[in-house]
Amino acid sequence: MKPVIEARGLGVEFYRSRRRKRSLREMVFKGHTGAPIDTFWALKDVSFDVRPGEAVGIVGANGGGKSTLLKMIAGVLIPDEGRVTVRGGVAPLIELTGGFLGELTARDNVYLAAGLHGLRKRDIDERYDEIVDFAGPQVAAAMDMPFRHFSSGMQVRLAFALITTLDEPIVLVDEVLAVGDRAFRERCYVRMENMLSGGRTLFLVSHSEGDLRRFAERGLYLSSGSLIADGPIDEVISQYNADADAAS
Ligand SMILES: Nc1ncnc2c1ncn2[C@@H]1O[C@H](COP(=O)(O)OP(=O)(O)OP(=O)(O)O)[C@@H](O)[C@H]1O
């Protein structure tokens, strides 16, 4: 079976400072103006394959490139080098707000976001109560409020409930579980286990070893944008911990 994700030589270059805009001359003659442009590679030469149904945990220190990698898989960031091929739809929970629009009501956001993932209004009507029930009574009572009035915990609850109700075969979860309270986290865990046993492919970014060991069988360890290790999650976590201990 073909991999669902193929990353080959992925690289992303960012500007270190937004203090100054690039001039037209710099855009045209990048690197030949004499004035150095202060950039860095948030990801550099990252290659891996992911098979359908794999559960991959991404580990690494702050700023290592984990979220940037997820954004490329989600298609919201385009690589500056290399390529990523994704076979199948992606349900990304990569920002606290799940990409929802603050001015719209929570209800309208559910219809808009689910519609963007290919669900028809009829399908959303059928799943609406389940989504809101999963998110909990506080969220259910606030569905007609603008989304920006939601607390961060409420935002995550609704976004997680929606994203995991979609039919997309690839699910990306970026460190959002930490925001929910304990009871909600437990419900999320059960849902993630169900998604995995249903054959979905999961990418999980987390600083919680417990969560990583529980859900991921394989780990990718990113440090300063480079893929340092790719292997069984326990080995990858040990390597990351050893590096962190050596650095402290
Ligand atoms: N749009 C952007 N413009 C410039 N720099 C950026 C941008 N987005 C991310 N970065 C930088 O790229 C690097 C990698 O960021 P990224 O968010 O991928 O790290 P991370 O591994 O997810 O970190 P954390 O564990 O703190 O969430 C960081 O140095 C970050 O400041």
UniProtKB/TrEMBL annotation:
Family: Belongs to the ABC transporter superfamily.
Alphabetically ordered keywords of this record: ATP-binding, Nucleotide-binding, Transport
Xref: Gene3D superfamilies: P-loop containing nucleotide triphosphate hydrolases
Entry keyword Transcription: no
Domain of life: Bacteria
Protein name (record): ABC transporter domain-containing protein
Keyword DNA-binding appears in the UniProt entry: no
Domain ABC transporter per the UniProt entry, residue ranges: 22-248
Pfam families: ABC_tran
InterPro entries: AAA+_ATPase, ABC_transporter-like_ATP-bd, ABC_transporter-like_CS, ABC_transpr_TagH-like, Bact_Polysacc_Export_ATP-bd, P-loop_NTPase
